[in-house]
Amino acid sequence: MAIESSHVKDQSLMELESENFGCSHYRRRCKIRAPCCDEIFDCRHCHNESKNSLEVDPLDRHDIPRHDLKRVICSLCDTEQDVQQHCIHCGICMGNYFCSICKFFDDDVSKNQYHCNECGICRVGGKENFFHCNKCGCCYSTMLKDSHSCVEKAMHHNCPVCFEFLFETMKDITVLPCGHTIHLECVKEMEQHFQYSCPVCSKSYCDMTHVWEKLDQEIAQTPMPQMYQNKMVWILCNDCGENSEVHFHIVAHKCLKCKSYNTRQTQGGPSSCSSRFEEMVR
């Protein structure tokens, strides 16, 4: 009879373990007590979303200090306890993946979580698939090990489009050829608005040869009025950094070095449009 009771108890425990506990961010069998405001949340993201909403007074908004977490509450028996993987009361595993440094629990081990000592946080994707770049201060895919452009603390800033802090984001990130980092979905949104240059340094992040050829054709088919045909302006190329003196054109200005049209006008030359216009008015 005792054996049968023990079997039923073990079976019941297995059924409880298979339940989908947690929140939209993580599957886990515990809640956390925030050390900053002493309130209970499903995870740190739930805390940050709640405490940084528009309804909260700006002076009261804050993020949870993730490494300062000291207390968790078991989702099965509601026992509050120090941070640990197994509940001290019912023995349930509160997260199949557990990091004692980050105080982090997650049941979905298919993410291949690992802790990076250099980053100081847990990441997903499998440690064997990533390397830590000390100059950039973050982990990158091993496919970029010999090809990425280093930018000091590249991930320790906000996304230049949506302004979310990239170092701890849960969204996919891409590294542009210039070395700057940005959300992948933000890059796709930029492309929908025909923006193909880095929002940080303005360098083109994809092959624009076909676009430059179309601009060549458009400029050839758009002759400037006589008064502007000899006007020269200085331009700075955003792609190669070269300064050039070129003929002024209303459509675009082409870099003499790399043939890019991703340029900006820096000087108007010896005879600016406005001064020439004023002479004609007189």
From TrEMBL:
Keyword presence, Zinc-finger: yes
Matching PROSITE patterns: ZF_CHY, ZF_CTCHY, ZF_RING_2
InterPro entries hit by this protein: RCHY1_zinc-ribbon, Znf-RING_euk, Znf_CHY, Znf_CHY_sf, Znf_CTCHY, Znf_CTCHY_sf, Znf_RING, Znf_RING/FYVE/PHD
Domain RING-type: 159-202
Domain CTCHY-type: 94-158
Domain CHY-type: from-to ranges: 16-92
Gene3D superfamilies: 2.20.28.10, Zinc/RING finger domain, C3HC4 (zinc finger)
UniProt keyword annotations, A-Z: Metal-binding, Nucleus, Ubl conjugation pathway, Zinc, Zinc-finger
GO biological process: protein ubiquitination; ubiquitin-dependent protein catabolic process
GO cellular component assignments: nucleus
GO-annotated molecular function: ubiquitin protein ligase activity; zinc ion binding
Pfam families xref list: zf-CHY (PF05495), zf-RING_UBOX (PF13445), zinc_ribbon_6 (PF14599)
The keyword DNA damage appears for this protein: no
Subcellular location: Nucleus
Pathway: Protein modification; protein ubiquitination
Protein name: Uncharacterized protein
Organism of origin: Cannabis sativa (Hemp)
